[in-house]
Amino acid sequence: MTRLVDSSTSATAENASPEQSSAERDQFAPSVGMRPWQFNLRHAFELITAAAVAAALAAYHGAGALVLSAGLFVSWLNTRGRLAPVQTKRHRPKFFYAAWLLFFASLFLPAMKGCNNTTIPGWRAAHACAMVEVEIAHHLVVQRQLPEESSLSAWGQLGWFTLLNVANLLALLSPWLLWRLQRDRGARLGAALAVVAVMVWSVPLRDPEMLVGCYVWCAGFIALTASYRMGPKTFALMALLAVFIALV
To answer: Helix (H, G, I), strand (E, B), or coil: what is residue 121?
Structure first.
């Protein structure tokens, strides 16, 4: 009886079409090679530490720290491999499509307040960010003129706006990143995007009065960085940058 069952099972496997076999492999691909996650003492320590840091940021900087805390928490889950089931070649494009929709919407939503309490849309805020970087670089590098604040503060502002503009540039290049990730490449470009995303998530931290367009813009970067696996070194650099921004 056992031999009959075995023979019928093998015959069924042989009669299965290649299309069906490949479809089954794609369906269960996220679970292949994955071990059940056991929440051990180290994970508990990391989670408690992250929660304590997030609570300290929220208490010191207010609600503006919630975006940075959410971005770092999702990145921590990413590093621990908890987002692996949705980081497959089948599901990854969905995150990129969602991020592109968020980026497009943020261009026309009010992002910040201007003079006379007027609202500035996202595309004007991005243009102003680029122009401020050019102006500061022109004064510091070309004319060698220091603004009213100290030289260190001026160079810090130049670095701040430069990294924000790099983040916007990498967002524009995200279709190329998706193309490389789908071919098992683009790890360095993805790491660079994850690091500069910390600067984006820190904008509400620096200015809690940012409007809805800014938060939609930040959500787009969370969607992008959640679509691919990042290593522990990348997350460590992100955490150090976040701590530095919070303390400065």
So the answer is: strand
Q: How far, in Å, CA of 181 to CA of 169, rounded?
A: 18
* Contacts by residues 36-39 (CB-CB < 8 Å, ≥ 24 positions apart): 37/80, 37/81, 37/82
pTM of structure? 0.76
- Distance CA(237)–CA(246), nearest Å, equals 14
Q: What's the pLDDT tens digit per position in 230-242? A: 999 999 999 899 8
What confidence tens digit (pLDDT) does each residue in 71-92 have?
998 999 999 888 999 999 999 9
Burial of 78 (0-12, 13-18, 19+ CB in 10 A): buried
Q: Where are the alpha helices (DSSP H) in 62-150?
A: 65-79, 92-108, 122-137
**Domains of the chain by residue range:** 49-247
Between CA 27 and CA 19 the distance in angstroms is 12
Q: Which residue has the tokens 């931290």?
A: 205
